[in-house]
Amino acid sequence: MADKNKGGAKGFIPGFVSDKLVIGFLDFTSKLQRPKEDLIELHYEYNKDIWKTSKNKCMKAYKQKWYIEKQSELKGLLYGKGNQRKDKRYLKGRNLTAAENSCTVIAVYNALVSLCHGKVLVDLPDLIKTFEKRGIAYGGYYGTSVKAMMRFFENNKIVTEMYIGKMIDDDVIDDIDRCFDTFVMTAYNNKHDITDMIHTVCITKEKEGYVIHNEDGGKTYSSLKDAVRGFREGRGRVMMISGLGRPQYLE
Length: 251
What we know:
The chain is an alpha+beta fold and 251 residues long. The chain has helices spanning 12-16, 19-29, 37-54, 84-91, 98-101, 103-115, 124-133, 146-155, 170-179, 224-229; strands at 59-62, 65-68, 159-164, 182-188, 198-206, 209-212, 220-221, 237-245.
């Protein structure tokens, strides 16, 4: 929990508002400002072409599993319903692209790579299309609903064990560490400042250790607990964590 004496107004939401409420609010905004079907299809065809030439710039291999590690290289991919006024308000004038808002979609992609032992059953443009239809929050300016991510896993018969907010203690983290090899986590980037936003990542057990993908540039940890508590060098705070298990049809 954030130190409630720090951060002032910026620390109010991380320090006082329940994580369950914040996650629920983001899910509510996924029902607002959704891209229209023709725009989703336009993005999909465009993204397929861009992804062919851009994916090698953002990936890193662990054994034979290629994970997306550099979201910043996805400036060419479109995700969401752009608006100049909102670009100025939320992105300091930058255009709305997958480089800004696709961390949850990337976490799903990386989790599937881990669960499928390196096989890519659903490519990134397809996932973007899926979440533009249902899950993108406030047209993309609030990223993607965590609940939509979990619904995606459950609808695809992927075993989940999810914990939110105060439910998450060291015993819970150790328990899911023993039961799973693939995890997704949503966390505040800065537990004292909501304006630093929220980030969703996939964490996997690799030969090198526990890796937080699309985050640390390949830094490894000795345990899941160390990865969670060490997120953003301890400045972050976990809001949600879930273990993910392979469905029988992938065996």
